[in-house]
């Protein structure tokens, strides 16, 4: 999407055939994506319909999706701190760099309840998600996740990062 194009059409993800979503995710991340660490963090959970969207191009084709999941950071004392895991943010390869991912992120962030937004966590590019959306790896240095990951790619966004536990293990929210 360039400046001459209109904004993408965003619809609730639950309005899209799940098979089409899976095909898009396979194209964006590969068919082996289910073994990635992010999948282990949210294992057994369903994505949240109110915070998950699809992007359609001008011809009505599915070109991108974003899913948001309930997760929690369990601190060393065993207390679960609820959070939202963002991702995958997926755009078909031939449409990447056209603004669809950014539009999906903005839609998800705009749908958060601003009266008490939960911290949002993701595994992604710190430069991109930090510059555009305020995510940072600084608070996550003492956090653990199930599976391999690059520490500088575990990012969080919170209204008040000072309330985040400095240590803990990220996993599915079982509240």
What does this structure look like?
The protein is α+β, with helices and mostly antiparallel strands and 175 residues long. The protein has a single domain, classed as 3-Layer(aba) Sandwich (Aminopeptidase), CATH 3.40.630.30. Helices cover 21% and strands 29% of the residues. The chain contains 4 helices and 8 strands, in the order E-H-H-E-E-E-H-E-H-E-E-E. Strands 1, 2, 3, 4, 5, 6, 7 and 8 form an 8-stranded mixed sheet that branches. The longest helix is centred in the first third of the chain and has 12 residues. The N and C termini lie far apart (40 Å).
Helix content: 10-25%
CATH fold category name: Aminopeptidase
What are the low-pLDDT stretches, counting only 5+ consecutive residues below 50?
Answer: none
* Terminal-residue CA separation: 40 Å
The radius of gyration computed from the alpha-carbon positions, rounded to a whole number of angstroms, is 16 Å
**Sheet of most strands:** 8 strands, mixed
User: How many strand units?
Assistant: 8
Structural class: alpha+beta
Topology as a string of helices (H) and strands (E): EHHEEEHEHEEE
Query: What global shape is seen?
Result: globular
Number of helices: 4
CATH architecture: 3-Layer(aba) Sandwich
In terms of DSSP E residues, the strand content is 25-35%
């Amino acid at each position: 999407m360039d400046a001459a194009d209109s904004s993408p059409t965003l619809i609730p993800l639950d309005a899209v055939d799940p098979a089409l979503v899976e095909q898009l995710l396979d194209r964006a991340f590969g068919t082996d994506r289910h073994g990635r660490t992010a999948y282990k963090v949210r294992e057994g959970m369903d994505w949240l319909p109110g915070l998950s969207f699809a992007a359609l191009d001008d011809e009505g084709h599915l070109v991108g999706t974003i899913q948001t999941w309930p997760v929690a950071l369990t601190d060393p004392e065993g207390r679960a701190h609820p959070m939202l895991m963002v991702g995958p943010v997926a755009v078909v390869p031939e449409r990447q760099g056209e603004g669809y991912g950014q539009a999906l992120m903005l839609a998800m962030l705009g749908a958060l309840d601003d009266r008490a937004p939960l911290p949002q966590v993701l595994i992604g590019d710190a430069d991109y998600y930090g510059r555009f959306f305020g995510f940072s790896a600084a608070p996550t240095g003492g956090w653990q996740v199930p599976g391999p990951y690059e520490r500088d790619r575990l990012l969080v966004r919170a209204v008040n990062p000072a309330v985040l536990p400095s240590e803990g293990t990220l996993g599915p929210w079982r509240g």
